[in-house]
Amino acid sequence: MAALTAVLAVTAQFFGIAPPAQAAPPAGACHTPEPARSAVPAQPWAQQALDPRRAWPHSRGGGVLVAVVDSGVDADHPQLQRPGKVLPGRDFYLAGSYPGAFDCVSHGTGVAAIVAADPVAGIGFHGVAPDARILPVRISDRDVGDQGEALRIDPQVVANGIRYAADQGARVLNLSLAGHEDFAVIRDAVAYAVARDVLVVAAAGNAQRDATTELPSYPASYPGVLAVGAVDIDGARIQGSQVGRYVDLVAPGAKVLTATRVAGHAYVDGTSFAAPFVTGTAALVRSAWPGLSAAEVAQRLMATAAPARGGQGSPAYGAGLVDPYRAVTDGLDPQKPAALPAFVPSPPDQARLDREARDERTATIATWLTVAAVTGVVLAALIAVIVPRGRRRRWRPVRAAAVPDQPTVVEPPEQVFLISEP
């Protein structure tokens, strides 16, 4: 089947025609499907700001399977249709044995595209890790709102999807959903994935109404989950991005461009679309550093994050803005630093010390000799001046002129008149 798909894709590209759809929704699966949108050629600000292309010479995410537990993925999108990129996956939302490789609302397609969309000519948008493979796990239709908030998703369905992704060998798992309730089945499913060395990335949520109140967020708050908030083009937290100690990183989440079902693009907002930027970066790291555990990958992502407005460890910004290039290329060592050897001073160089002492004594003697010589010259000059004068006076003292008792008064001259008296 994969070979046939590849042949069809190559043939379609050669003749300039669109390949036949392989991920069309099953009949009746989409009751109110999202309408098709136009392609957007402009390069989006998020791709310019993070610039994941700089990391591609070192890693493109090859060999890493990323699970997108969401509304499905339209595997027919031109930037996702490369053979082998999007696996069939599974649909846990509809009863039956449907795949997860179709989408009615574009939410999951947008998330998957931010993670791994291929660059194509004439389109500025591309994913962070284009060589990563996507495992679509469909757990909702319109139960995920436009901002990625959980509305009516069955917790058991979400848990089933998470466990399935972990069992299929996913190395990174994206959960672009959030809620205020702590469901035991989802918590246990996340723990199941974490125990199997899956890096779970979750959206922080979009329910924030002020800048200080910490709201609960699940699955973002579960142990082992990397929680992602959203920032705008200026690096400021978007209004709805939730604030809490569970926020680990931030990524673009305001007016970011992504793919939509039926070959289009759209600008979207929310932490749902910030999370896949971190998920894609995690795929780059897991490909470049295969020996790192999921916890070490998460630590690396936070350690290499760019500074954000909130400062280190901020409840609104976490460790900062995710940086794909640094996350891949920084030569971090996950091992603890080795202890420094004890300091052993080297023995003194006695010959050098003796030589310096002799030089210092010689300099001191030369200084004193110079002072003595100058003093002798001054004394000789004084003697040469004083002795002849003393001989001429026969060494008699010279009396100074007496000082008068009263000062001499100088009288002014008589007045001189230019005009005679009358």
Describe this structure in words.
The chain crosses the membrane at residues 365-387. The chain is of the alpha/beta class and 422 residues long. The chain has a domain at 41-329: Peptidase S8/S53 domain (Rossmann fold, 3-Layer(aba) Sandwich). It is 31% helix and 11% strand. The chain is built from nine helices and nine strands. It has helices at residues 2-15, 45-50, 107-116, 155-167, 184-195, 271-288, 294-303, 324-329, 350-392; strands spanning 65-70, 90-91, 133-138, 172-175, 199-203, 225-231, 247-252, 256-260, 264-268. The protein has a seven-stranded parallel beta sheet with strand order 2-3-1-4-5-6-7, sandwiched between helices. Strands 8-9 form a two-stranded antiparallel ribbon. Helix 6 (271-288) crosses helix 7 (294-303). The protein is elongated. Mean pLDDT is 87; it is low at 1-20.
